[in-house]
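Below is how a single chain appears once it has passed through the pipeline. First comes the sequence as given, then the structure the pipeline wrote out for it. We keep one example in the README because the format questions we get most often are answered faster by looking than by reading.
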Amino acid sequence: MRPYSVFLSLAFGAIAAAAPNFSGEWKMNAAKSDFGGMPAPESVTRSIKHADPSLEIKTYQKGAAGEVTSELKYSTDGKPATNTVRGMEAKGTARWEGDTLVIESWLTVQSMEIKSKEVWSLSDGGKTLTIRNHVSIPQQGEYDTRLVLEKQ
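Resulting structure:
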């Protein structure tokens, strides 16, 4: 094999293996989302800035409990992150599993550790972001949700 063909092979392999980019303005598709028996919010919008390994997420949610905004930052290389959620310290990590992003976080509320495992994936040519979330709350059980967001 010629040296330049080895280089091209490696270069195209790196491009093909590039992780998805979640950057953009996103809006919930309520009809495709499922909140696992929990009350569904009226609306959810997310502004995501993603330049691997940096991931910044700004979320606005409106529902029966009122309006909630949050700003979270993660490093997709698995480094621990600390964020503030509703005035409480939340810890978490983000890491790639193939072409999906897995964000695991935990938060202690009234001596109970609430755990969340989100799995992010893109489809429809990068126009649809699906976030599957498994939540575990001691003494209350576990449930799964699916948030489907469309790029604006």
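Residues 1-16 have pLDDT under 50 and may be disordered.

See the next section for the split statistics.
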